[in-house]
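Possible regression after last week's pipeline update?

I re-ran a chain I had predicted before the update to compare outputs. Posting the input and the new output here so someone can diff against the archived version. Not blocking, just want to make sure nothing changed silently.
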Amino acid sequence: MVKQLRSGKSFELEAKTSDTTARYSIELDDLVITETPRSGWSVSSHNGESLALDLELTPELIRSGLVREVIRAIQEERKKIGLDVSDRIVVQWHAPTDVAEAIKFASGEISAEVLAKKLEQTEADGSTDSELGLWLKVEKID
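New output (post-update):
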């Protein structure tokens, strides 16, 4: 009904009682249309179409986000030391527990994405400026 009204058409309604039938025409100006999303959801509407997104951060989504941040950090380090996109690398890393668990869980995905032949957890050789608390050492291999 809302889609039809928002497209500029009226909505026809038929009401029957035991002895009569009445027809009504509803126009967009006859209504006040509000959309209230459920808690934890975001809703956006345009031209009668609505899209709802569940914004709950599950442990899987948080881990996936950490993995993407680790990949981004490794790629930045590659760029910083002047490596080509196709260079194979070895990555030594040290991270807080939550980030370390994400790296271990997705080591295959991370290695494939950054062309790492080896991801090696080690003790940090220095400090890190990373928001993740991630220390990295990237080396090109021949």
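Follow-up from reviewer: compared with the archived run. Strands lie at 11-16, 21-26, 41-46, 49-54, 89-94, 116-121, 135-140. Marking as no regression found.
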